[in-house]
């Protein structure tokens, strides 16, 4: 899978996200943070966010800004507090870390989403969509890991 | 000798490294964040509506089958959820119905018992003690479970209202066996009350549910439909109804009439009877 492939993948997640109202793009972006270079992921997050804005009828730039912010903040945090944490090194820990990131960021995401679109300060702690996010994360992590490995091997012209 | 950096120093060092990364790599992030904010401001002011419409067209085209799939999926899930709820509700209703049925049966039993008690006390008055007994089995004998075994003895008369049910033939710890009038071993002194007078005989049982009034001479006038009751001999209360004459036959070889008596009671359907005690 090349850059266009990952972009299409994220756009697909955005479509499902807008249709089923699950923070799937966020899940995808946060998982990809562990597999692709952060610089690429920033502009992918931007495009995905715009697609999500267009599909969900929110103000342009809301989702893209939140996704980029999530990528940057979590990248910083991980580099600062646990730089060795990668999928290859600590599979169980990284899965847990991603789940935590998804659950926390989803709630913050909702806060900024409501603030930007409706001008309402509401911090909803309800975890109703958390089970769906957890299941999706658990499914997507190995999938993305596999796709990413294939992508890297192709870049290095290795047989996989 | 290499000096070891303290934890805080290490953290500080890592932080500076990251800041360096920020400077090098996150300019892109800042640019995109700036673009996003600008877009948001434009959109908020209503300046990006036409632009949104243009870009939304291809995505809406893609989104349509997804929405269709969602609607179908949602309707299927809703159906399944409702199905489970309906099944649950049905189960609850079935349970409630079973409870109501049980309650209904209990009340019917109470009603029957109440009616029987009323009839019993109305007929015998208070001098004769009537011990209510549940019927727990019906075969050749009637198995009964009296409320109290005090006063229940072999030979006690069992009645229902003013109907004769039988005589206690065996007593157990809590149960008693009642010999029915149809039993081949049963022999009850009886009297047929006819319009012209009282005709005495002995009611004996035959195999099956037949009762026959024996020892009635051919000269006696006995009509079908006449009531047969106990005569008061053999330690049985007088006036207890044994049944109704259903058939009267004259057999040439016999000096007696062949009188069939049909009981008013269906012993297989009884639920409560009374044991008479002095």
Itemize the secondary structure elements and their pairings.
The complex is a heterodimer of chains A (160) and B (278).
Chain A: H1 3-20, H2 24-32, H3 38-56, H4 62-81, H5 91-118, H6 130-155
Chain B: H1 7-25, H2 27-44, H3 49-124, E1 129-138, E2 141-146, E3 157-160, E4 163-171, E5 176-179, E6 187-194, E7 197-205, E8 211-214, E9 227-230, E10 241-250, E11 257-262, E12 272-277
Antiparallel strand pairs in B: 1-2, 1-12, 2-5, 3-4, 3-12, 4-5, 6-7, 6-9, 7-8, 8-11, 9-10, 10-11
Question: Sheet bearing the most strands of chain A, described?
Answer: none
Broad shape of chain B: rod-shaped
Strand content of chain B: 25-35%
User: Mean of the pLDDT scores of chain A?
Assistant: 79
What integer is the average pLDDT of chain B? 79
Low-confidence stretches of chain B: none
Task: Report on the biggest sheet of chain B.
Answer: 6 strands, antiparallel, barrel
Helix count of chain A?
6
- Helix-strand pattern of chain A: HHHHHH
Structural class of chain A: mainly alpha
Proportion of residues in helical segments of chain B:
40-55%
Number of helices of chain B: 3
* DSSP, total strands of chain B: 12
Could you give the distance between the termini of chain A?
Answer: 13 Å
| Overall number of strands of chain A | 0
> Helices and strands of chain B: which structural class?
alpha+beta
Helix content of chain A: over 70%
| Biggest chain pair interface | A-B, 31 and 34 residues
Could you name the ranges of chain A where pLDDT drops below 50 across 5 or more consecutive residues? none
Structure report:
The complex is a heterodimer of chains A (160) and B (278). Chain A has 160 residues and is mainly α. Chain A has helices at residues 3-20, 24-32, 38-56, 62-81, 91-118, 130-155. In chain A, helix 1 packs antiparallel against helix 2, helix 2 (24-32) packs across helix 6 and helix 3 runs antiparallel to helix 4 (62-81). The model of chain A has no long low-confidence stretch (mean pLDDT 79). By secondary structure, chain B is an alpha+beta fold. A 6-stranded antiparallel β-barrel of chain B has the order 1-2-5-4-3-12. Chain B has a 6-stranded antiparallel β-barrel with strand order 6-7-8-11-10-9. The longest helix of chain B has 76 residues, at 49-124. The termini of chain B are far apart. In chain B, 24% of the residues are buried. The mean pLDDT of chain B is 79. The interface between A and B is medium-sized, with 31 and 34 residues.
């Amino acid at each position: 899978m090349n850059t266009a492939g990952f972009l299409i993948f994220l756009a697909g997640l955005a479509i499902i996200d807008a249709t089923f109202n699950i923070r799937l793009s966020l899940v995808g972006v946060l998982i990809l943070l562990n597999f692709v270079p952060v610089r690429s992921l920033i502009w992918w997050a931007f495009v995905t966010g715009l697609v999500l804005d267009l599909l969900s009828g929110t103000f342009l730039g809301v989702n893209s800004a939140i996704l980029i912010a999530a990528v940057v903040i979590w990248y910083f945090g991980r580099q600062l507090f646990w730089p060795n944490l990668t999928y290859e090194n600590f599979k169980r820990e990284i899965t847990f870390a991603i789940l935590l990131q998804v659950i926390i960021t989803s709630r913050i995401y909702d806060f900024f989403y409501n603030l930007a679109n409706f001008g309402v300060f509401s911090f909803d702690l309800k975890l109703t969509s958390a089970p769906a996010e957890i299941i999706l994360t658990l499914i997507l992590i190995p999938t993305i890991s596999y796709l990413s490995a294939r992508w890297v091997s192709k870049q290095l012209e290795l047989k996989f | 000798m290499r000096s070891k950096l303290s934890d805080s120093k290490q953290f500080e060092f890592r932080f500076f490294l990251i800041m360096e990364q920020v400077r090098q790599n996150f300019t892109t992030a800042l640019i995109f964040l700036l673009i996003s904010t600008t877009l948001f401001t434009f959109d908020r002011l209503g300046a990006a509506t036409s632009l949104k419409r243009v870009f939304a067209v291809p995505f809406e085209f893609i989104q349509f089958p997804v929405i269709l799939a969602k609607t179908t999926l949602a309707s299927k899930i809703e159906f399944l959820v409702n199905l489970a709820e309906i099944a649950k509700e049905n189960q609850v209703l079935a349970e409630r119905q079973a409870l109501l049925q049980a309650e209904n049966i209990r009340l019917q039993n109470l009603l029957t018992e109440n009616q029987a008690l009323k009839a019993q006390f109305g007929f015998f008055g208070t001098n004769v003690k009537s011990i209510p007994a549940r019927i727990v089995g019906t075969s050749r004998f009637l198995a009964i479970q009296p409320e109290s075994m005090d006063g229940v003895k072999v030979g006690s008369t069992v009645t229902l209202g003013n109907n004769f049910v039988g005589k206690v033939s065996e007593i157990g710890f809590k149960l008693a066996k009642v010999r029915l009038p149809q039993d081949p071993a049963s022999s009850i002194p009886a009297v047929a009350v006819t319009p012209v007078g009282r005709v005495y005989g002995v009611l004996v049982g035959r195999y099956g549910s037949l009762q026959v009034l024996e020892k009635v001479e051919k000269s006696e006038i006995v009509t079908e439909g006449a009531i047969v009751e106990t005569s008061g001999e053999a330690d049985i209360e007088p006036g207890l109804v044994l049944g109704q004459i259903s058939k009267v036959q004259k057999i040439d070889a016999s000096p007696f009439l062949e009188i069939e008596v049909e009981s008013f009671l269906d012993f297989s359907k009884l639920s409560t009877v009374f044991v008479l005690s002095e």
